[in-house]
Amino acid sequence: MYSSEVSASEVSASEVSVSEVSVSEVSVSEVSVSEVSVSELPVSELPISEFSASFPTPATERIIIPGREFAPVREVFCSVQGEGPYVGARQAFVRFSGCNLKCKYCDTDFANPGTCDYEPAEGSASFEKVPNPLSARQLEALLQPFKNLHSVSLTGGEPLLHADFIGKLDLSAPLYLESNMTLPEQARKIKDRVVYVAGDFKLPEALGLKKRDAREDHIENTVGCFKILRTNETRDCFCKIVMSRDSDSASVLSAVDAIADYVSCVILQPETVMEGQAGGINTQSPVKTLIELQNMLLEKIDTRIIPQTHRMWGCL
Ligand code: SF4
Question: What is the pTM of this model?
Answer without folding.
Answer: 0.79
